[in-house]
């Protein structure tokens, strides 16, 4: 893995970070709305054609191990995952709620890549039970603009737990 997931200070001016913040916050809101409304087949559209998505535990990330619950390289692989999740898996009815906070815009490169981090909390509600915390962690993102739209070039969703409440694996 080329990424380091340890704390790193911002290397972007406060002014530029503030200018980028509304666009990235809106991106997170739309991304979460698609997943929370169970429109998982739209999920790949948030990524570049060659985008990378990885969901892995904090322990594996800190050890530099690329092993993850979900690994998808390219929009086609993400589409396959989305279709499998939405059309073929059988599971108890549930609702999800993604909460994203503490957005930190870390860097904007000379080629226009925007690196950021944000905390996430994924709540899950089974129809016949209380809402519970399903996952908590941090997004480590690289955004780029494609035809004027913000897209993810990479999203590493690093979740804090080593044990998941169940084996269902949805995009985070």
From TrEMBL:
SUPFAM superfamilies assigned: NTF2-like
Domain of life: Bacteria
A molecular function GO annotation: oxidoreductase activity
Keywords: Oxidoreductase
InterPro entries noted in UniProt: NTF2-like_dom_sf, Rng_hydr_dOase-bsu
Pfam families named among the record's database cross-references: Ring_hydroxyl_B
Record family assignment: Belongs to the bacterial ring-hydroxylating dioxygenase beta subunit family.
Protein name per UniProt: Ring hydroxylating subunit beta family protein 4
